[in-house]
Design a protein that fits this description.
heterodimer, A: about 260 residues, alpha/beta, Rossmann fold, 2 domains, 6-stranded parallel beta sheet, 6 strands, globular, B: about 210 residues, mainly alpha, 7 helices
């Protein structure tokens, strides 16, 4: 059987199948009515405050899903964008969205249009407020700085895939006195957001966006599956550490198959 | 309805499953299909999307110029450089002197200038973060000071214990925390990918 597999990917394949199976079962159970509760996530809860502040000040809200292309973190950011857009439409707050990758731009515009439609205000969508900046990292950073400074935004929401430009954007937002909410799965950028922003959605909390905002049963089920898998990962790490400490390398051998 | 809802799900399912199979199994047909068809189409779609992005840039900045009656120098500069760069690239080629000049003497230095801002922003962010307003901030302040001292030669002279302590903080506490985020993030990636492949993430296409 091993010859059918690419070398050293047998264990990975069965692990992936198992993980997908667990998530599939929990999503199915959630759709059948299994109750899944989501703990409050301060970063997501603060979005209402951020949009409310912008409404009171009569200034726009800025949102960016980051520098990444259509990766999982960007999709989580777009899920949050849908909620922010609906909220902005409800309060008649101008929402400016900046995007760095062309394929993300196309999807972002569609998500905004759909959200304005759901809010009952399709005419409120302004195509010029969904802005493609640049695929170049620093051109994107300078473009976003320009938008933040020129538009004097009241709130700056950055949820998605970010790289080295994260602190530059967060400090620019701080310069204009915006309330800042940020979230990324990039472990190297989280510390920058923690020190520079008011609220941070930490790592995989981002993937709870769909479950948090829409209480979507598929997302709730998926979230439960992720929690179960995390528990399995922790158990595996503890067992592995004990086995290696005891002189057994059988788990390492199994994982290298 | 079919084009907007069903077709994207079908394409996502076929593409996703094919790439996964090609990654794990030695099936030449699947591997060729993934490498030579799906990944190439990904580039083609990205190029079309780039065209949409270019149209967006032109539309926004032309509007800016019209609204401000030509006084918006930034939009004018952007439109001028946009047109010049395209003309140089299309008619003179990417290896021509003007195109290389734009890249080497305008694009690269301005990018480096923006990147260099990071050094100053780290200073201002650290100044705000290093205020011991509560217990967590105090721990951050002390840890930050230890790591800073442990990373510079003078720190080793003044307080020698900061060097091994810094190594321990960076290799145990820091790496442990980062790996936790990475593992949880990877599980989240799998969940999102699974939902997209089986068509349960319709919001991705802007559908309800």
């Amino acid at each position: 059987m091993a010859s059918v597999f690419v070398a050293n990917r047998v264990f990975d394949f069965f692990t992936l199948i198992t993980l997908c199976g667990i998530m599939g079962i929990t999503m199915y159970l959630a759709r059948r009515g299994m109750r899944v509760s989501v703990r409050p996530i301060p970063g997501f809860d603060a979005i209402d405050e951020a949009v409310g502040r912008a409404a009171e000040m009569g200034k726009p809200v800025h949102f960016t899903p980051g520098f990444g292309g259509l990766v999982a973190a960007t999709f989580a950011g777009l899920e949050a964008l849908g909620y922010v857009t609906r909220l902005c439409a409800a309060y008649d707050v101008r929402l400016i969205v900046t995007v760095s990758q062309a394929e993300t731009y196309a999807v972002t515009e569609q998500v905004m249009k759909q959200a304005y439609l759901e809010a009952g205000k399709p005419e409120a969508f302004r195509p010029e407020d969904c802005r493609f900046i640049s695929t170049d990292q620093w051109a994107y950073a300078s473009g976003v700085i320009g938008v933040l400074l020129r538009e004097r935004v009241a709130s700056n929401i950055m949820i998605g895939q970010f790289a080295a430009e994260s602190l530059i954007l967060a400090e620019a937002g701080n310069t204009v006195g915006a309330i800042q909410i940020a979230g990324t799965t990039n472990a190297y950028q989280i510390p920058f957001f923690v020190v520079a922003c008011d609220y941070v959605v930490l790592g995989d909390e981002m993937f709870a966006a769909g479950a948090h905002f829409a209480k979507n049963e598929v997302h709730l089920g998926s979230l439960r599956g992720e929690d179960i898998i995390k528990a399995i990962c922790i158990a595996t790490m503890v067992i592995g550490a004990l086995m290696v400490s005891g002189g057994s390398k059988s788990l390492i051998t199994l994982m290298s198959k | 309805m079919f084009l907007r809802k069903t077709l994207p799900v079908v394409i996502a399912f076929i593409s996703g499953v094919t790439v996964v199979i090609a990654y794990f199994f030695k099936i030449p047909f699947m591997q060729n299909f993934a490498q030579n068809f799906i990944l190439k189409w990904q580039s083609v779609i990205a190029i079309f999307a780039l065209g949409l992005g270019a149209v967006n840039i032109i539309r926004i900045h032309v509007k800016n110029v019209q609204r401000d009656q030509g006084r918006n120098v930034f939009s004018l500069a952007l439109l001028a450089t946009f047109i010049i760069t395209i003309l140089c690239g299309v008619f003179l080629g990417q290896n021509s002197k003007p195109y290389k000049f734009i890249f080497d003497y305008i694009n690269v230095p301005t990018g480096s200038a923006i990147y260099s801002l990071l050094a100053f922003y780290i200073g201002t962010a650290a100044y705000r973060a290093f205020r011991a307003k509560n217990a967590e901030a105090a721990i951050l302040l002390i840890t930050g000071c230890v790591v800073m001292l442990g990373r510079v030669p003078i720190g080793a002279k003044i307080l020698p214990f900061t060097v091994p302590l810094t190594s321990w903080i960076m290799s145990v506490l820091n790496v442990g925390g980062q790996r936790g985020v990475m593992v949880a993030g990877a599980i989240g990636f799998i969940a999102v990918s699974l939902r997209i492949i089986v068509g349960l993430e319709r919001r991705s296409y802007g559908a309800d």
